[in-house]
């Protein structure tokens, strides 16, 4: 299946399924992320942990997706097929109820057949289960998406649980899908437009122990040229920056796991992607605001921190994807 292989080759190479010593992979997905990190020259936001990852990665600046929508882009990422081939034409849950075709062979399905243990923590938003099976799953399908996708302390503990139950010597693929920085005013308005108040310690908001909230003055944000520069847009961006900061700090706590499988630092590939539907932009997103993709492997340390100008497309759906061993 050449189209599926072309989409998943980077991850499969990371796993090293054809080598005597298999590697594991951790894929971290942002929900509606964009250029709002320091690594993409945004000087108004503080994202030290994402920037540190980028400095140890080759960050591609010319990778694109065929669809700017949540479930279709996630299905493309996990199948290597654009939405008209995988069947996920629209959003999966609620009234939309779109699903991939029953005979699609997804990445978690193929990895399971190859003996790789698979796990997902956070927002799944694809189906059916038979097409996207994970051995270890904590998602909106069996819990609160706020807890598994925004509560970085809860996510840390779930990652630890996955690693502690991992058989030594068996490769794994762990997919951690943040719900940050997606809007939430339509579903949980009490937490703010982007759930920027969720877990901030204020009355009624709860507290996420591993998060130190960062707030931003709307006057200080960088408004993309394709977004009207209005007070409402600036207020949205300021709230979004706060939730991106929570995800950034989540990257720090996810990387501080103990105990870990023996040799994990040598044998683990780490990727960061975004579901390519920037908030407030949807399908009107400018081409250069589409997804970016970057890869790096251990023998290529001289490329760390440099931008990749090669044009790439990840099976119709992708995102910024630094791969870090």
UniProtKB/TrEMBL annotation:
Going by the entry's taxonomy, the superkingdom of the source organism is recorded as: Eukaryota
Q: Cross-referenced Gene3D superfamilies, in alphabetical order?
A: Alkaline Phosphatase, subunit A
Start and end residues of each Sulfatase N-terminal domain: 26-249
Which Pfam families does the protein's record reference?
Sulfatase
Signal peptide annotation: 1-20
Q: Does the keyword Signal apply?
A: yes
Instruction: Enumerate the Gene Ontology biological process terms.
Output: glycosaminoglycan catabolic process; heparan sulfate proteoglycan catabolic process
Which InterPro entries does this UniProt record tie to the protein? Alkaline_phosphatase_core_sf, Sulfatase_CS, Sulfatase_N
- Kindly list the GO molecular function terms attached to this UniProt entry: N-sulfoglucosamine sulfohydrolase activity
Q: Which cofactor does it need?
A: Ca(2+)
Which terms are listed as keywords in the entry? Glycoprotein, Hydrolase, Signal
Q: Which family does it belong to?
A: Belongs to the sulfatase family.
Give the protein's recorded name: N-sulfoglucosamine sulfohydrolase
């Amino acid at each position: 299946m050449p189209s599926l292989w072309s989409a998943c080759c980077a991850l499969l190479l990371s796993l090293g399924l054809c080598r005597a010593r298999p590697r594991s992979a951790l894929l971290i997905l942002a929900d509606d992320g964009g250029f709002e990190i320091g690594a993409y020259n945004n000087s108004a936001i503080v994202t030290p942990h994402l920037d540190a990852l980028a400095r140890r990665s080759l960050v591609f600046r010319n990778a694109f997706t065929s669809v700017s929508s949540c479930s279709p882009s996630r299905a493309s990422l996990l199948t290597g097929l654009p939405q008209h081939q995988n069947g996920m034409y629209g959003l999966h849950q609620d009234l939309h109820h779109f699903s991939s075709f029953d005979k699609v062979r997804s990445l978690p399905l193929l990895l399971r057949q190859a003996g790789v243990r698979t796990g997902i923590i956070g927002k799944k938003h694809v189906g059916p289960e038979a097409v996207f099976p994970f051995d270890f799953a904590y998602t909106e399908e069996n819990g609160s998406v706020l807890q598994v996708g925004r509560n970085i302390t809860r996510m840390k503990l779930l990652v630890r649980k996955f690693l502690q139950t991992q058989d030594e010597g068996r490769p794994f693929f762990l997919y951690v899908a943040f719900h940050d920085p997606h809007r939430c005013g339509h579903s949980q308005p009490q937490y703010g437009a982007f759930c920027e108040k969720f877990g901030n310690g204020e009355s009624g908001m709860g507290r996420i122990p591993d998060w130190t909230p960062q707030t931003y003055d709307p006057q200080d944000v960088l408004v993309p040229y394709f977004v009207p520069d209005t007070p409402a847009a600036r207020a949205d961006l300021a709230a979004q920056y706060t939730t991106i900061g929570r995800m950034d700090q989540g990257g720090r706590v996810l990387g501080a796991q103990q105990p870990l499988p023996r040799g994990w630092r040598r044998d683990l590939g780490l990727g960061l992607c975004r579901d390519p539907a920037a908030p407030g932009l949807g399908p009107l997103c400018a081409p250069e605001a589409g997804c970016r993709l970057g890869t790096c492997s251990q023998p290529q340390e001289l490329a760390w921190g440099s931008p990749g100008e090669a044009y790439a497309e990840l099976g119709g759906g992708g995102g910024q994807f630094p791969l870090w061993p």
